[in-house]
Amino acid sequence: MDAGRRIETALDAAVAHLEAPGAPPRLAEALRYAVFPGGHRIRPRLCLSVARACGDDDPAAADAAAAAIELLHCASLVHDDLPCFDDAPMRRQKASVHVAFGEPLAVLTGDALIVAAFETLARGAARHPQRLAALVGLVARAAGSPAGIVAGQAWESEPYVALSDYQQAKTGALFAASTVAGAAAAGAQPLPWRLLGECLGEAYQCADDLRDVACRQEEIGKPAGRDATLGRPNAAALLGTDGALERLKRLTREAIEVIPDCPGADTLRAEIEAQTRLFLPKSLANLVSA
Amino acid sequence: MDAGRRIETALDAAVAHLEAPGAPPRLAEALRYAVFPGGHRIRPRLCLSVARACGDDDPAAADAAAAAIELLHCASLVHDDLPCFDDAPMRRQKASVHVAFGEPLAVLTGDALIVAAFETLARGAARHPQRLAALVGLVARAAGSPAGIVAGQAWESEPYVALSDYQQAKTGALFAASTVAGAAAAGAQPLPWRLLGECLGEAYQCADDLRDVACRQEEIGKPAGRDATLGRPNAAALLGTDGALERLKRLTREAIEVIPDCPGADTLRAEIEAQTRLFLPKSLANLVSA
């Protein structure tokens, strides 16, 4: 099965558990709405690529890790879109969850997806409890406080923040989790894989800033120009479009260079090059490969 | 160390990890505010009592299970108090988290506490990965969808709900998790312990309804009469104070009767009798023991 199919199948199984008989019907509907259809599934693709590069000897564990990371990402999107944060009306070309289902169910959808991430790990990595223990710790670290995505979002409530702390927590942590969890799911040492995830997280952040500044809403499925509206730092606004594109190219090269020795390193390199092309919509991606 | 000290120590260690260097300071402050000072810590006490009744051969695992359950309970209080749910101004004799820290940090505090519950399990139960696997699954089941506390809260967004489904998910699930997780942490079969937790969950719900109807705000640390204001079902309103007190007595007796065979059954019986007395403020508790 190719990576895309594996990811959608794993996410579908995870969401199906949440919708089991007895679930409140509107919550169940909101949970599926928040997860499907997805974006490019960049983080779980990265996770599976690393797992395969490390031998992928327990595909159920790798699928669970990939799904858990995407569930956390979806949870963070639902909560970040809430009126008390970005008050975003749209996400992935459709109404955001609180617009479609109301604020109470949007809060609960995010909560349930966070829980589901860990439940998915427990179910999928049960064959190797030692790996499960590592995975729960690695994924939790990327999600919570002091340095996960929740902490990243919380920096927006602080009067002073170092841009790098903010971006590392808000974006970098989940990319780093994607690579280390992919390795851990396959029984490899996770730590050497962190740097690759961090480089790709920075590259993605840079691409996201470019999309916000240089694209129209139809291309990115959510309102453009939000960083300026919300007074948030943006690499493309600071460096200009060309400067940000240059930075993105450099970070992508760096990522390729820091791939640890592993059985599937060559394939992994090619996959990461393909995945980073998904960071930008076509109009901008052509400029990077130029 | 007595149970109360074990619980506060375990919670303090869990929160200290969330406040580690690099954490956003206001989030860190809100996290500690949401967990300390606590209420009666009824659920973690129950968890530790069951673990001890089952031999408590890995106290770190039992402490982690107890802390994880209390962290989830605190998370649910923070989110339930939000303006889009109960809009509660007070909790545990002080301003609720969104009043003290604002709505964005209240959402994130709940999120971070959910994550912390699983991180605490991963850290504390590392010596027995097989038990950790069981604990993550049991705790997740009590927290999320289809039948955990998040689902319980989501029933409030449905046009029709069976009262038993609502109360079982909103209150019963975490009590059931307290007993099964206590057993699992000590290496015992968790399933036989579910019924005890469910009985105590029903008893607690009945006591909570009594407190809402029959107590003043100063006694319970939050506004009284909220169920009537919010149009929620309440056993004391349905059965009258005497009827609800009778039901509470019966449920407590049932709980004592369904304790599974275990090395520490006698001590456990006494502990549960003491713990159920904490369900009500003194003015009402005297009526139950009368």
Automatic annotation (TrEMBL), chains A, B:
Q: Hey, which family's this protein in?
A: Belongs to the FPP/GGPP synthase family.
Q: List the cofactors.
A: Mg(2+)
Could you tell me the keywords of this UniProt record?
Isoprene biosynthesis, Magnesium, Metal-binding, Transferase
SUPFAM superfamilies attached to this UniProt entry? Terpenoid synthases
Q: Which residues form a coiled coil?
A: none
Q: Name one GO biological process term.
A: terpenoid biosynthetic process
- Entry GO MF terms: metal ion binding; prenyltransferase activity
Superkingdom of the source?
A: Bacteria
Instruction: Write one Pfam family the protein is assigned to.
Output: polyprenyl_synt
**Stated name of the protein:** Probable farnesyl diphosphate synthase
Which InterPro entries does the UniProt record give? Isoprenoid_synthase_dom_sf, Polyprenyl_synt
